[in-house]
Amino acid sequence: MTAPSWPAAATFGPLTARNPDLEVLLTDGLGGFALSSLAGVPTRCYSGLVVSALPPVQRHTHFVSPREVLRVATRSGVREVALHALELAPGVFEGQGLETLSGASLFDLLPEREQVVAGVRVRRRNFSPRGSGAVVFLYDVISRDPVNLSLGGYFVDRDMHAVHRRTPDLTFTQTGRVVSVQGERLTRVTVHAPGAVIDALTPQPTPQRVYYRHDAARGEPDHEFTLGAALWELNFPAGGGRAALVVQGLSPAASAAEVTDPWAAYAQETARRRELAERAMLVTGVRDDLVATLAVAADAYLVRRAQPQGGSVIAGYPWFADWGRDAMIALTGLTLLTGRHAEARELLATFLQTTRRGLIPNNFRDDGAGAGYNTVDGALWLAVALERYVGATGDLAFAREALPHLRDLLGWHVRGTDHGVRMDERDSLLLAGEAGVQLTWMDVKIEDWVVTPRHGKPIEIQGLWLAALGAEGRLSAALGEAPQFGGPLARAQATFPAFWQSGAYADALDAQGQPDRSLRPNVPLALALPDTLTTPAQVAATVAVTEAELLTPVGLHTLSPLDARYRGNYGGPQVLRDAAYHQGTVWPWPLTAFVELLLSQGEVRRARAALTGLMGHVWEAGLGHVSEVFSGDELRPGGCPFQAWSVAELLRAHVLVSQAEAQVAAAGQPS
Question: In this structure, are residues 505 and 523 in contact, taking their beta carbons and an 8 Å threshold?
Answer without folding.
Answer: yes
